[in-house]
């Protein structure tokens, strides 16, 4: 294996030339068989472990620069790689090896009355662009998912991770070459800074779809500035509604699980709505369970009597994805008021109703306009792994193309194959 | 039925208020059953015929204004309604009544190991925006497709058709009300001019998807300016390749059909590529058949000897969707040169190879990156009606969400329904 440090072979290329190289390489990726793509993925997993020292040295450099630039502790933590995290990354890549290749899957098809046969099959997008912030694990993750689904990838991972990403991209490029695939299929454009991100967002004809991953601000910037089609993976202001007939044990278990099992992720609950006829019965045990886990309660006027240690909730709380052990609690008159609140504040990610009333359950499932709507289950189930997808590209909160947890098929488009024997249109 | 002329009930609303009204109305549309939606559609078909006089008067006014403003003959023709065209519009709406309602269709689903049941079902987008130019038939067409798929619609049909569209929208709104659906579900914003179109393109949170229909310039403007997700229905620079082994009768029939059966549509062929080893055998009969139909041949150097009356082809010809009885003809060395030409000039709409060589057919189908790829069939088959969709929303040339002919299901998103019994995540 050649040296992993120093400039990449593509370093001298302009941004446009790199996009063009990725586009050209995407043609080989698109027709590569699954065995070859899996060979590249295994080589990436091996390469990440074999190059641990180089990767960790580069990461040290990024971390030192980050500390100097005053990055927050949270950002520094996400930027940090360790031997254990590298092992985790390699394992994740090997898991993608085991997933079904979506390319070539026949989605539907028929024979037309004149004998022409039409089949809609899954094909790669071509070139997937990704814009994310200082998370080197995403570099490996997106590249591996792109390769498995037959796509080239152009990565803009943020200047804070530039040294780490450069080594990781070299590992990926060498792995591609070792499997007989074009190294150009995965490119980094970190060295072009913000200008590079801006060009990526408008690279129509070179980039087929753009996936932003990161903060709400980043996603908002990409969605509003990009002329390339975007798949929005959004924030989760997630609601659980305790209906009048909710079982107490389910209410306690689900609210606790949805809030505290992993508060820093998008499918954790942010606001608990409680039917007023159930408040007296359910709020004491539910809030007590939350308090025992160290959760801070932000209560509205009608919930405050049940939560003497709570802080008053604000409109801003209702609109915030806390990603922490905070929960807003509001008492509502009925299902309609609950759904009105959800319409106003939800990011349309996941909402769950806890109820034993069939009509209310069906109304909630039908009328709440979110990617995932649940009855009597924890919102933490909104997850590609839990849904059985094996790996997750992200959770889409838009309605076009993909909605909810995205697996490998969501990284593909389709094309229609038409087979005739001389037919013409009458 | 109240008067059909004069200002609409929504005339006094601001653009923002109309978008908000459509959004609110979309909630009722989303849960309306098929019978009710079909009742509204039948009322539209009846209403269009019952209001013929008012519609045609309004149309006369638009046409008079258009002539004064110097609209081209083509634009004036598209703007023109006649009793026969109104009958055609009513018939098209009744055809949509007969189509399967996509809303509620279960796309996939499973039981998770813990007993939680997940189902992905089709749901309406919510509010569909449409931007088009001076074609009042699109007003009825898009509104009917939107209603059937449970969506509200906000229509920007161009100031040239403002009088006609106002009457048509009133017919639609009265039909909605007569079926017990909110009249606000279909709105026109023609009276806000270009500013209205600009606002529609950035109405995130109010408009879920935007469909531009019209010229390449219009589509380009929407795609680059919109922050709302767009489904691009693009132009067709469509290719037919005559491979070395192409049957002469199929070559003649398919090229003639693809060019002359309806030259003004996007699936008509624009460029004929011919393998050099087949040029002498195939070009004389093919070009002779085209000449007999009045087609103007634009030939490259190597094709010119077979087409003495041809004009020399230019690079601009190769890139142009003529929509007329013009065809570019180019002789290529082999399949690779043909696919290279297609990569350079195709709009990725439809390409067809005429061949008896199995390997070449499979390479062409696999490697040509277009919405529809064909072997031994006329490109004119790229059509929702021909594909058996019953009606066509348009032909998508983008890769996100929908690609190729779009039917009613392409006007829907999905949502995940999760049914548990108290499960939490471990």
From TrEMBL, chains A, B:
PROSITE patterns, per the entry: PROA
EC code(s) of this entry: 1.2.1.41
Pfam families documented for this protein: Aldedh
Catalytic activity: L-glutamate 5-semialdehyde + phosphate + NADP(+) = L-glutamyl 5-phosphate + NADPH + H(+)
Location(s), subcellular: Cytoplasm
Known pathway: Amino-acid biosynthesis; L-proline biosynthesis; L-glutamate 5-semialdehyde from L-glutamate: step 2/2
UniProt keyword terms in alphabetical order: Amino-acid biosynthesis, Cytoplasm, NADP, Oxidoreductase, Proline biosynthesis
A molecular function (GO) term: NADP binding
GO process annotations (BP): L-proline biosynthetic process
InterPro entries: Ald_DH/histidinol_DH, Ald_DH_C, Ald_DH_N, Aldehyde_DH_dom, G-glutamylP_reductase_CS, Glu-5-SA_DH, GPR_dom
Main location (coarse class): cytoplasm
CDD domains assigned to the protein according to its UniProt record, in alphabetical order: ALDH_F18-19_ProA-GPR
NADP recorded as keyword: yes
Stretches assigned to the Aldehyde dehydrogenase domain: 19-291
GO cellular component: cytoplasm
Function: Catalyzes the NADPH-dependent reduction of L-glutamate 5-phosphate into L-glutamate 5-semialdehyde and phosphate. The product spontaneously undergoes cyclization to form 1-pyrroline-5-carboxylate.
Entry's family note: Belongs to the gamma-glutamyl phosphate reductase family.
Protein name: Gamma-glutamyl phosphate reductase
This protein's encoding gene: proA
